[in-house]
Amino acid sequence: MNFIDIDQQTCSKDGFCSAVCPAQLITFTRGEYPTPIEAAEKLCIRCGHCVAVCKTGSLLHAEMPLTECPEMQPELSLSAEQCEQFLRGRRSIRNYRDQAVPRETVQKLIETARFAPTGHNTQTVEWLVLSDRDELNKLLGIVGQWMAWMLDNMPEVAQAYHLGNALRRIKEGEDVVLRGAPVLVVAHAPKDDQVSLSSCTIALTYLELAATGMDLGGCWAGYFHAAVNIFPPLQQALGLPEGHQCFGAMMLGYPQFRYHRIPKRKTPPITWR
Fold first, then answer.
1. How far apart are the C-alpha atoms of 221 and 236, rounded to whole Å?
2. DSSP for 4-73?
3. Are 253 and 183 contacting, i.e. CB atoms less than 8 angstroms apart?
4. Is 242 found in the same domain as 111?
5. In terms of domains, do 35 and 165 share one?
6. Which string of DSSP letters, residue by residue, matches 164-214?
7. CB atoms near residue 153 (< 10 Å)
8. Less Cβ crowding at N or C end of the chain, within 10 Å?
9. Could you tell me the CATH number of the domain that includes residue 154?
10. Which residues of 165-190 are buried (b: 16+ CB within 10 A; e: fewer)?
């Protein structure tokens, strides 16, 4: 089998595979079969557009067997109204039930989040899942140390982020960093890759949205993220691979409360050209 083959027995000659290929690896002349270029394997970014758009399953890609590319199920598509309510009704969850999240559930969420877009389809996002309560409490304590360091060394920044009040609450036994969430999901990627930040951010957003369908909720761990890339003790405790950086962290757990209304938001400023 070639890197890309066309099954001429089933191909409809619509040329869609050629039209959607971002690297223009498939040539097409109306009335003829699509033809992959010789350098297709070298230039392909493995996005799968050609496989996904072929309704007849005639586009055969060596790295994307049809058995691993399930067909879309139109009956599962959201209506415009459902999609609007789903996104507008999203809430940052900071109150969690004292209930563990099964590893299989987190695994399924990450399996969904891996389909988030990445720059040039690099797919470099990696994951660290923390659920051991002792380890989470240890991280909470280290973030508290970072807050104290910030108050001593960067007081203006610390004041802007209300770190004095946050540290006081930590000392009083309140978890304002991880909110008692049973799981912390860290997205990390090569720190020198220009698309790592956007890739991890979008992937974590996918994960948070997907969590709703499993009766879970999430919240961006802002204090943790602010500390982890500038405070060596927290970096050492996290133990990410050499050359990697945390680009976002998400608390995850079963919400203690349900929300019944969609709060008001600012009118978006829009410039039309």
1. 18
2. EEE-TTT-----HHHHH-TT--EE--TTS--EE-TTHHHH-----HHHHH-TTS-EEETTB-GGGSPPP-
3. yes
4. yes
5. no
6. HHHHHHHHTT--SSSTT-SEEEEEEEETT-TTHHHHHHHHHHHHHHHHHTT
7. 9
8. C
9. 3.40.109.10
10. ebbeebeeeeebbbbbbbbbbbbbbb
Q: Is the domain of 16 the same as that of 138? A: no
Distances (CA, A) of 51 to 8, 16, 43: 15, 10, 16
Are 149 and 18 part of one and the same domain? no
**Token pair of 102, please?**
């099964």
Q: Does residue 191 form part of some domain?
A: yes
Q: Is residue 103 a contact partner of residue 185, using CB atoms and an 8 Å limit?
A: no
Provide CB contacts within 8 A for 228, sequence distance 6+.
Answer: 234, 235, 238, 246, 249
Q: Is 219 helix (H, G, I), strand (E, B) or coil?
A: strand
Q: Residue 196 corresponds to which tokens in the numbers above?
A: 């790592």
Among 17, 63, 11, 8, residue whose Cα is nearest residue 36: 17
Q: Are residues 141 and 245 in the same domain?
A: yes
- Number of structural domains (the chain) is 2
Q: Are residues 98 and 58 in the same domain?
A: no
* pLDDT averaged over every residue in the chain: 97
CA 200, distance to chain mean position in Å, is: 5
Cα dihedral 39/41/42/48 (nearest 10): 120
Q: Which domain holds residue 154?
A: 92-253
Q: What is the pLDDT of residues 215-266, one digit of tens each?
A: 999 999 999 999 999 999 999 999 999 999 999 999 999 999 999 999 999 9
The residue assigned the tokens 């133990």 is: 239
